[in-house]
Amino acid sequence: MSMIRACSGDDLAAIYAIINDAARAYRGVIPDDRWREPYMPMDELRAEIRDGVAFWGYEAEGELLGVMGIQDRGAVTLIRHAYVRTGVRNRGIGTALLAGLEETTGKPILIGTWAAAGWAIRFYEKNGYYLLSRERTERLLRRYWNIPERQIATSVVLAHGQRPKGGGTQPLTP
Questions:
Q1: Angle at 70 (CA atoms; ends 72, 32), nearest 5 degrees
Q2: Does 158 fall in a domain?
Q3: Is there a cis peptide before residue 174, judged by omega within 30 degrees of 0?
């Protein structure tokens, strides 16, 4: 049996392992100066949690197979650190986590990811998100994320909902 559940402090080692296993997909894809091993050190993971990222997990047979963070940033909700163990990808785990987290907020949802991570962008687009303009992306990344300028320059932001017709003004106002 599988379920989506809020993660606790007891899950910290599993969250760390899932993130760093799944993030190996970024090696050689994202800019070399943004890659490191481990991709997310334990102290950074703890800092993200202290900063309000609440992790949820997809559990099957007592094992966490995927995790996804959600962070309330006032006017918007951010989906952060979405990862599924390498050995169980493409089984609907990410989709189930995303749908579960979407139900926890009534606010506009924003997702940031690496511009070079085409598979991640396609995943979010398949689930109803669309890419925002470069100008809007940079403005939102500076406002709602705490990331370096180099990461802002190499990232994209996606929003949920129907893409405006004709490429006009997106409905998200923040």
A1: 115
A2: yes
A3: no
Distances (CA, A) of 160 to 43, 112, 127, 142, 174: 31, 12, 8, 19, 14
CA-CA distance, 15 to 20, in Å (whole number)? 9
Q: Let me know if residue 124 belongs to a domain.
A: yes
Residue 114's alpha-carbon distances to 5, 27, 61, 171, in angstroms, are 26, 12, 32, 23
Tell me the pLDDT of the chain (174 aa) as tens digits. Answer: 999 999 999 999 999 999 999 999 999 999 999 999 999 999 999 999 999 999 999 999 999 999 999 999 999 999 999 999 999 999 999 999 999 999 999 999 999 999 999 999 999 999 999 999 999 999 999 999 999 999 999 999 999 976 666 554 344 555
57: domain CATH number is: 3.40.630.30
Q: State which residues form the domain around 8.
A: 2-167
Q: Please tell me the pTM assigned to this model.
A: 0.92
Q: What is the domain count for the chain? A: 1
Let me know: does 24 contact 37? Beta carbons within 8 Å.
no
